Design the sequence.
């Protein structure tokens, strides 16, 4: 698909992207406990970054350590690519009963919703790549936000001796089970984002008990 | 936009009051604005005197303790767990927080923004009723309860939603009367003896002429305007207002207001020309509302028959149901209900004594045993009681005992009529074994303690929780002193009691399943009394006795007292007290629901939440049993 603007020419960038970039101009490093953080998850047609597509994005914001339902995001995307195998997991049918929007519109809305908020996802690299790939299809650059991975953060709270599955990254199910979080709506983007948000709150309370860490320092912190 | 998370939060909230009373759309609007908080154990949600937040809190997971600072120390006021709300009152009264909220375990809270909530709650009477009830219960002192009155106006409560006023008023069918010629003095004596506030003046044909009330006597006789020998007809208020039977409560109230009177005479045809058949007083109307403990208390004190007491006992049941429905804390409910119950017993015994041909030859005391003795009885169960009388010379013993056995027979019969069924094991004052003089009782207890056996342990588990119901406090006090004295050399007794306390293991089986009954008519039900409550009751009794603490019989209070005596175990004891209250509430709710004692619970009928709540009460049982094992060296017994 052709998109009418060019990566190299900044003047022709769409308005929402310009606004997005503008939010990063001031390079502050605020306290994590006072910052708006966005937790998100994507459901996709599969795990191939190049060929698979995003079916839905669910996100919820944590502001000053509180999950705010009024600051949440949930969108379903029309896709040509369809994979019967993954329907079993996420339950999103090609012609499902959801109001769906085009990928470009979904990404634009998501970027507007994000702003410069640090991003949290479970196994963050995958979701980040899927979003970046979609941005790339629109002729745009990659996400600029600070990104945390709850899988890695959670690992920091565990001493290697007490790790139940050392050498591996934790699945969201495994962590939720260990942290006693009920797993409703698992495998919907919004449901997983909410579970991830609770994992983040529980984990960050351990990593930042005195609420002193800044946004940039969290990824470097460790209990051990 | 679809909002999966908000939908899920709404699904959860709607299982709990007051959210279960909301319309679907209102609940959706609230859920979409919820703030989810996570508190690690030991963290504050807010602290006393903090400025109020813009939201109140609903406990999703975990437990939050509310603490109040009384001078030097923080005292625990309440524990909120899954489904409870807290921190709402200051938002409505617009004050700072009056208590601190601290996570007793790691907790997830839903913050409900007050602005979203008030808009909806104000239009919804059921919600404001619920809130008022929960506020009323959060207030432990009556002065504040009075102050809380402003909430009633703010929320425009409808007090009687069940059209109570349209019910037919029940009237007294044989009112006390006197003739017009009766001297006022005699009329007043009659009123005093019958404990009534008014007397009706009738002619020879029983046609009502007038009424004399306390205020007539105060205003006309006591002032010196008339002598006490004046004939009744001179000072009576006349004419009387008459109505036919079948008048509704609403009509009666309106007539009383219109004529500024407190009594209505019920006559055969409703006019003042026919025979008087009854009398309806303002007091009777109040009493029939059954929503006010103080009115019930007056009713009990004035009751002239066992039948009246039975009716009042039924009203206490109605009151209890309302309290439980409104989630009023159990310690509050227990106090009121056990107070009312003991007044009923008191009055029933008073009436029984009056039925005896002669007054009691010596002083005696009627004592309640078991759950009644522990003041843990909400729904009427079997009666367990005993009688102790003052020591008499041997030559008079048989005669005295037979007098008290006869009296006990009358008392137990009356209690049965009132709704306390006969004890199947015949553990009642009417049994010659449980009707003895003080010295024989003392001997009995010291034998039980010195030579404990399986049977005496079982008996003592009932007899150690005794409480004076009626009669001479001195007798009971002497008895408990002598018991404690015998206990000083009762090591073996403690061990046996400890073994007894461990006879029901933790109510959860190997697979974290509830242990259910395997046979009999209660097959596959969960016996909450013997599997969950008895272990706590037994443990509390044993620990309290071994600490030589007298005069605390209530299980929850025993644990709370133990928490003070043994600070190192305070946390365990407090959780035992909490668990016990939760279990008792559970049992009471089940009992009200199924109209039985609530003892056998059909697990299939419980919601998941209830099952979880129940399970959480079991952990302290396991822990306290461990403590007993170590303290009383019980391992070799088992």
Sequence:
């Amino acid at each position: 698909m052709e998109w009418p603007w060019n990566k190299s020419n900044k003047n022709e960038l769409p308005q929402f992207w310009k606004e997005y970039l503008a939010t990063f101009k001031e390079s502050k490093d605020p306290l994590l406990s006072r910052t708006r953080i966005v937790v998100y998850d994507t459901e996709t047609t599969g795990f191939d970054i190049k060929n698979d597509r995003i079916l839905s994005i669910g996100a919820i914001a944590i502001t000053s350590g509180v999950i705010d339902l009024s600051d949440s995001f949930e969108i379903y995307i029309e896709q040509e690519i369809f994979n019967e195998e993954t329907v079993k997991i996420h339950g999103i049918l090609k012609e499902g009963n959801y109001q769906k929007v085009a990928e470009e519109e979904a990404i634009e809305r998501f970027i507007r919703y994000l702003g410069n908020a640090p991003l949290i996802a479970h196994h963050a690299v995958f979701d980040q790549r899927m979003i970046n790939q979609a941005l790339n299809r629109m002729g745009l650059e990659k996400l600029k936000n600070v990104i945390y991975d709850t899988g890695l953060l959670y690992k920091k709270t565990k001493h290697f001796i007490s790790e139940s599955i050392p050498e591996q990254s934790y699945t969201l199910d495994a962590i939720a089970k260990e942290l006693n979080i009920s797993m409703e709506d698992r495998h919907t983007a919004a449901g997983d984002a909410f579970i991830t948000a609770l994992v983040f709150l529980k984990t960050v309370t351990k990593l930042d008990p005195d609420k002193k860490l800044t946004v940039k320092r969290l990824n470097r912190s460790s209990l051990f | 936009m679809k909002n999966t998370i908000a939908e899920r939060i709404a699904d959860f909230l709607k299982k709990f009051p007051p959210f279960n009373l909301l319309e679907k759309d209102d609940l959706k609007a609230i859920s979409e604005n919820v703030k989810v908080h996570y508190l690690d154990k030991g963290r504050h949600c807010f602290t006393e005197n903090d400025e109020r937040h813009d939201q109140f809190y609903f406990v999703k997971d975990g437990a939050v303790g509310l603490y109040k600072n009384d001078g030097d120390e923080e005292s625990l006021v309440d524990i909120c767990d899954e489904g409870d709300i807290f921190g709402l009152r200051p938002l409505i009264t617009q004050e700072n927080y009056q208590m601190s909220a601290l996570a007793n375990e790691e907790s997830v809270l839903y913050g409900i923004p007050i602005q979203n909530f008030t808009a909806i709650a104000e239009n919804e009477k059921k919600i404001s009723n619920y809130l008022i009830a929960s506020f009323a219960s959060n207030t432990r002192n009556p002065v504040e309860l009075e102050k809380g009155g402003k909430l009633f106006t703010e929320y425009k409560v409808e007090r009687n939603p069940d059209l109570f006023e349209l019910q037919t008023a029940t009237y007294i069918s044989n009112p006390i009367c006197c003739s017009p010629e009766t001297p006022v003095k005699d009329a007043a004596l009659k009123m005093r003896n019958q404990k009534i506030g008014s007397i009706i003046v009738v002619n020879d044909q029983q046609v009502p002429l007038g009424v004399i009330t306390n205020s007539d006597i105060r205003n006309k006789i006591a002032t010196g305007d008339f002598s006490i020998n004046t004939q009744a007809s001179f000072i009576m208020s006349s004419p009387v207002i008459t109505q036919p039977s079948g008048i509704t409560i609403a009509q009666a109230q309106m007539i009383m207001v219109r004529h500024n009177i407190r009594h209505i005479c019920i006559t055969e045809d409703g006019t003042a020309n026919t025979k008087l058949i009854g009398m309806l007083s303002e007091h009777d109307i109040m009493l029939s509302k059954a929503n006010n403990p103080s009115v019930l208390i007056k009713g009990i004190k004035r009751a002239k028959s066992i039948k009246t007491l039975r009716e009042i006992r039924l009203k206490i049941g109605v009151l209890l149901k309302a309290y439980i429905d409104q989630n009023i804390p159990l310690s509050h409910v227990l106090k009121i209900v056990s107070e009312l119950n003991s007044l009923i017993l008191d009055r029933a015994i008073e009436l029984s004594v009056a039925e005896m041909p002669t007054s009691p030859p010596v002083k005696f005391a009627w004592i309640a045993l078991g759950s009644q003795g522990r003041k843990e009885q909400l729904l009427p169960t079997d009666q367990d009681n005993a009688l102790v009388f003052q020591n008499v010379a041997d030559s008079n013993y048989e005669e005295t005992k037979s007098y008290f056995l006869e009296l006990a027979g009358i008392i137990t019969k009356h209690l049965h009529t009132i709704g306390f069924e006969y004890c199947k094991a015949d553990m009642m004052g009417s049994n010659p074994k449980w009707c003895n003089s003080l010295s024989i009782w003392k001997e009995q207890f010291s034998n039980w303690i010195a030579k404990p056996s399986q049977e005496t342990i079982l008996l003592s588990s009932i007899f150690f929780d005794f409480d004076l119901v009626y009669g001479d406090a001195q007798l009971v006090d002497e008895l408990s002193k002598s018991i404690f004295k015998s206990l000083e050399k009762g090591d073996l007794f403690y061990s046996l009691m400890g073994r007894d306390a461990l006879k029901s293991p933790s109510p959860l089986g190997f697979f974290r399943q509830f242990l259910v009954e395997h046979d009999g008519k209660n097959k596959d039900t969960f016996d909450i009394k013997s599997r969950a409550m008895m272990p706590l009751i037994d443990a509390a009794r044993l620990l309290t006795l071994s600490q030589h603490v007298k005069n605390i019989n209530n299980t929850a209070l025993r644990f709370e007292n133990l928490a003070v005596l043994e600070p190192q175990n305070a946390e365990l004891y407090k959780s035992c007290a909490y668990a016990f209250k939760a279990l008792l509430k559970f049992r009471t709710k089940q009992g009200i629901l199924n109209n039985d004692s609530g003892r056998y619970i059909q697990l299939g009928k419980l919601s998941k939440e209830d099952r979880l709540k129940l399970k959480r009460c079991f952990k302290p049982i396991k822990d306290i049993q461990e403590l007993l094992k170590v303290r009383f060296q019980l391992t070799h017994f088992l």
